[in-house]
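Quick one:
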Amino acid sequence: MYLRALIVVMLLVLAGCAATQRVREAVAPVVVPASTWRQVDREIAEASQQAVIQVKVFARGSMEHWRVRVYAVTEENFIPWFSSYWTQEWMAMKVSWYSLTAGDEQDAAATRLAEYLKEQYQEQVLAPVAVEIDPDAILNQATEFYIELLDKQVQVIAQRYRLPARQLDQRLNGVQAIRLGPPPARDASLYQVLHAKPLTTLPAYSALYQQIHSAPAGTGEVSSEAGIVSVARQASEKFEAQMAGRGIAGAASAVAGKVAGAVISLGAAGFRAIAHESDRAETEAQIRQSLGKAFDQAWFKLLNNTGNGVMAGVYYLAGHIEGELGQSAVPEPPLETVPGTVHPPATPGLSAPQTGWQPEP
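Output:
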């Protein structure tokens, strides 16, 4: 009896030892070989490169849509306003006042008129279009799209190599995606970037966005400034010549007396209105050419500039991620040079409206 009980106790002890060993084996960490991690790094870098290519297609299509809208609103709002008789009269008065108060300042009238026209262009064209779409929005959308594509591929890679989630997270935390610190909040790892939903909630990305947005000629500084300056210079010269002619008419009306003077003044005003209508088509053609050429150049730079264009956030993240993973960084910028006139290839579903606002070749 005693011997039987002893045997039962020994069997229970042995069974307990075996169970403990099995538990230890079950919780033993999976060891991922270094060679596997190197392959994972390479595949993440390749996934980043492929994501950049896809996002470039998206960004170009979005920028083409923005371009089409700016063309249309310029034709609908700004050009008719600029070429109208009363706007021309108002600007002529402004130029006259600018000239009188300029002193010895060179081109003061043209410079101040350009500032006025830039404000009007922003108010009448760029601001209304921005309600629907603008380069700042495209910058954020492109960066979010890049992160979304990369995150999907990282999950595919993790499943392919059966990577433990905790070890993968540690690996991704070791890859610096944003490095703008100090302070440390301006830095972010690849893990943080992939898990920020939305990306704009990440302080480091907000800092990156502000850096791109505030850069000279960046997404926050969109205008056809060169075209506006050209238009203002041409208009200023025309108005100054007109005001000189009006001075002669005013002197003649003063000499002729009240009744005859009023007739002369009314006749001069009527002649200006008739002359304006005959010159209106030419005025509109000039502003189309000046604005169109300048806008197309600005559009091209916003699309292709790796430092402050709509793809700048994507290029920054891809460059740091691929660099940390030992791959080539930012893709080479396009070999195209900025021509005087740019006609981007048509995007499916989008076409420039038949507004006539196209820079001449």
